[in-house]
Amino acid sequence: MKGWLRRSLEISLLVLTAWISMLILILFIELVVIRVYFENSLIRGIFRVGLSGLLILLWLMFWWRLTVWYYKRRVLGK
Amino acid sequence: MYILHTLLSVAITFTVTYILTDIVAKYMRRIGHVGVDIHKPHKPTIPTSVGISIVIGMTFGCIVLVILNSTVWLKTMVLLMTMWICSIIGLIDDFKVLKGTTKMLATVIAIIPIIIGHLMAPDVIVLGRPIVPILRRLRLTIVYWLLLPLAIAGPANAVNMLEVLNGVMPITCSLALVPLILACIIVGDINVAVLATLLLSALLAYLPYNKYPAKVFSGDTGSLAVGGAIGALAILGRVELVAMAALSPHIMNAFYVVSFMRGFKEHREIPRPVKVSSSGVIMDSLNPRAPITLVRMIVGKEGASEVEVVKGITIVQLISSVIALALALLMR
Predict the structure, then answer these.
(1) Which of B193, B195, B317, B302 is nearest to B249 (CA)?
(2) B82 in a domain, yes or no?
(3) CB–CB contact B316 A15 (8 Å)
(4) Closest Cα to residue B232, out of B137, B132, B159, B321?
């Protein structure tokens, strides 16, 4: 299989991985994080938005690391 | 009857775009507005900003659609205004070269027609609580409004950033529109599905001129407009998640560039991620200061021809469109 074709298919697999993990994250946020209840509406808002934002940021960092790993390992062959 | 209206509008959009692309290309070459095709060894000059023909073709098709079916006037008007704002920003950038941050911030104003449309008729243009699989509606509330300014600027600039090779923009955006059209039909918004079909027909009319070897470049004029239109269609049809999945290659590429460069930079400020050999093979520049891009990942160290890279990007887009289609079907 030619290099460009193999890498295109691998990148497609990365895209699929990203979407599956993102959907799991969205489900977790909607079904768990959003359902945590605090009496104080300000604390409730800060908790929900803050934790959701943190989880999404972590997911983006994971995605970035995965890409850099893929590029160095599979593209450059280091 | 509605099918006949749609077919007529599609035919007019296609015909106007196809004829106008050639006319605009000749005009741009006459006034000396050309770009260099840097991925060819002989570096030919190609008329640029020809993407305006897509916007004009869409305008004609939309006018006919509204004449035949006046109930769609508000969504059509909002879509056209969004496209034109993005296109004008792109035209200014093509002639005057704006800074990356300036271009990004300028495209944010393209959300204004959608917000005005929502304020005029909140039951027609519904904002907030996007539809997602399984959960049906997300409880984003205030977060949705904070993210809304990026809803047009994001896809517009993402499509613009990936438009680096012949034919990439019309091919990838056409494939991205297919699941979007199906998603709109599934959620019951036939009007937005029709508008998306008009955009698809404009892109298919443009493709013969832009595919390898390209005779025209769309410039920022075309790519910002098409990306902005896809963003607008996603909001109008309430299929934001499907659009995000469909535009995965563009969003991925934009994310890598922005993350690596730590901000929005004009493409001339970005170190070149690839180089072209004398035989036309595109390969990794191995420059550690250059961002990781989709093209760079596909060509690798051994390189690939421009046609092969475009095929590679098309494969990634096809998979993304299948994912988007799966999400659309899960929304039923």
Answers:
(1) B317
(2) yes
(3) yes
(4) B159
Query: Is the residue at B278 inside a domain?
Result: no
Contact B133/A49, CB-based, under 8 Å?
no
The answer to whether the CB atoms of A19 and B323 lie below 8 A apart is yes
User: What's the confidence (pLDDT) of residue B272?
Assistant: 87
Give A-chain residues touching B312 at CB under 8 angstroms: 4-5, 7-8, 11
Number of domains in chain B: 1
pLDDT digits (tens, 9 = 90+) for B89-121: 999 999 988 888 888 889 999 999 999 999 999
Which residue among A2, A30, A60 sits closest to B135, beta carbon to beta carbon?
Answer: A30
Judge: B323–A70 Cβ closer than 8 Å, yes or no: no
pLDDT digit string (tens) for B155-191?
Answer: 999 999 999 999 999 999 999 999 999 999 998 899 9
Residue B303 has pLDDT above 80, yes or no: yes
**Prediction pTM value:** 0.94
* Interface contact flag, B252 A77, Cβ < 8 Å: no
Which residue shows structure tokens 């035949």? B68
Angle, CA of B255, B256 and B258, to the nearest 5°: 65
ipTM score here?
A: 0.90
DSSP-derived letter for residue A56 is H
Per CB-CB distance under 8 Å, the chain A contacts of B318 are 12
d(CA A50, CA A40): 15
pLDDT value, residue B101: 85
Q: Classify residue B306: in a domain, yes or no.
A: yes
Q: Which domain holds residue B266?
A: 2-272+302-330
Whether residue B122 lies inside any domain: the answer is yes
